[in-house]
Structure formats: C-alpha cells, structure tokens
Amino acid sequence: MKNIFNTYLVKPQSSKQRGFSLIELMVGLIIGLLMSLVVYNVLNVNEGRKRTTTSLNDINQAGSYAIYQLDKQIRSAGSGFTGGGDQIGANFTYGCRLDMALSGSQLTPAASFPAPFNAVNGVVRVAPVIIFDGAAGAGGDVIVTMAGTAGLGELPSAFSSPATAATLQLVNQAGMRANDVLLLADHTATNISPCLMQQVASTFTPVANGSAVPLLGAYNSASVNGTSATSFTATAQAVNLGQAPNLNMFAVAANGSNFNLMKYDLMQPVNAGSAAPNPAIYVDGVYQIHALYGVDTNPTTSTLTWVAPTGAFSAVNLLNGSLAANAALQRIRAIKIGVVMRTSLLEREAVSGGPAHAVSNTTLTLFSDSVPVTVNLNPTTYRYRAFEAAVPLRNTLVLSGALGN
After folding, report:
1. Is 13 among the domain residues?
2. Which residue range(s) make up the domain with 206?
C-alpha cells in the first residue's frame, strides 16, 4: 500500500526550476526604469517647448496689440487743437499749461500723479505727444498723448469780445454742440498763456448768426488754478475738443514679476479701487517702452531726423511755456515707438532676446537704425521680444502745410 500511495498520490519534483532568477528580475527592473526616465524626459521636453511656444505666442499677440493701440493714440494726436483758422491753433495751444477741473475738483495741475507716472511733473501742458525720457524708471519712458474728438469742426473759434464767467462771445457758433468740451487758449508776445478747460451747456442750441455760447457742465469751472474765462482777452480762441477728448499717459509698471503697460486718463480723478480704475492696466506683459521724436530739421526740404527726448527736446525744455518751445513742438512730425515684451514663463536657463535686433543674453537694442536705446534684460531666464513702429503725426503734418513748410 505504501508503494502504491507513493506512486499515485505523490508527484515527483522536476529536476529543472521554472520562472526568473533574481538577477534577471533586477536587470528587467533596471531596463524598465531607464525606459520610464526616457519617456519622462521626452514628455518633459515637449511640455517645456509647448509652454515656451505658448508664452512666445502670447507676447507676440500682446506686443502687436500694444503697438496697434499706441499707434492709434499717436496717429490721431493733436486732433482738434492743431488746425488753422484766423491763426494756427497750435500757436495758441502747444505748450500751454492745462488748467482743468471735473465737478469742481482740480485735475491739473496736480500735486502729484500715481505710480508709474509719479516722476512726471504735476503741471500738464498741451501737446500732441510728449515723451518723458526714463520717467518710468525700469519701465522706460512715459508717453503723453492728447487728441480731441470734435468731428463737426477742427478749427478754433476766435473770440469776438471778452468772455464773461458764464458765456463766450465768439465770431460764430459753427461746430459747437451742447456738452462739447472747449479749450480756451491765448498767448502773449513772449509766452504761451495758460489754457482753461470749459464745457458748453447742455441747453445750448446753435442759431444762425449766433455768437453767444453758454458754459455749464462737469468740466466747467469758474476758476481753476487762478485761471477763469474772464482771464482771456478778445484775441483768444476757443478750441473744440468734442465730447470725449483723449488725454492719456502711458507707462510700464512692475508688480512683482508681472509687467504691465498702464494708462492714466488725465480727464478723470485717481481711483485705483473702483470698477473702472485710473490708472488701469492697458496691455499685459510689456517690459519697457521707449520713444523718439521725428523732427523736421530743415523746413525748406522737410528733412526728418530722429532725435532722443533729451537736450533741446527734453520734456523740461519742450514744456517751459515759451514761444521757442512752442515752435519746437510744431517741428515734431512723427514718433518712433519701441515696445519690449517679456514672457510670463520662467526658463531654467538663460535665454537670448528676440529676433531682428542686436541681442545678447543681457541686453537688447531698440532703434538700431537711428538713435540706439539699450534695454537691460533682467533676469535673463525670461524670453523677450521687441516691436517697433514709426508713426506719423497726421495733424502736425497738416500743420506743416498750413505754415508753408
């Protein structure tokens, strides 16, 4: 019985082992880990390139948008207060101190402006475009643009007699509408007189051969900074800026690692906490902005020369209220604008800037074909891209023809 049990119930063990040895398992495990590392590295590289491509596309779009918006603001600058008439409007307005109030609260001259505009003098003077060189610090220049939106008439209206506190007496009422914003302007033999912002009453209705224009509204004030409607003589002019003038300042502000192009509306009070803040973010991702003046250096041949906003064309010299400054402002025919964008993606290694410019790992050069401006790139672990545009001042070019240049 014992032999039968051993024969039929107990299966003898095979002489050969089945499965993998410990060494084979360890080799397979190492190969698997190496394959995982290769796959992870491929995915990581692809994801990094995807994020870099996305961030570059973002600043390409934002940079194009920033150039478009600044081009639009600059191209229309001077509208409404440049044109001709009995005398050229620019002779009265370019460089005049802007005295302006909203609902009885003085807007300009201002005690100060909020960052990044705080380096700009609180005294605002009228001009199509003014460049404050390096006034935004690390953000570059501050650019001020001014334009009216009259539409019905681009010519100033001459006074027929001195104004009263509530009424202007003009040669005619042509181009005037209810609620239009007016700029009262004059000059003396040696200086440009202050300009006063006023507003046409909402009840005003023009009539044939009419001359009286009543003043009333949010931008109407009996006196601003010592200037009133009665301060102007019969030689003054009323410049119609329309019902929504654009008087803006642009500069780059840094908020930690974020850089934004900011816009400050000079016709509104500072209100950072409102639903419509002033100043407000205009374009994201702008690292610096810089600009040059295109100056007509030879009125006979209309030779355009690009000059930096320094020296004779510094903001201080252009805005000193003299007739010489007024003449210099009228010689500015174009603006060259440069915008440097920065990605929001922090790279692991230092990278170079953008194409089509002289670029190293630490600097980028704008306006290399005229007056070079070197931009320091810090830190170099972000990617940068530069955009440039030359923008003609259409209204000033019309003025050059009116002056016989």
Report:
1. no
2. 149-244
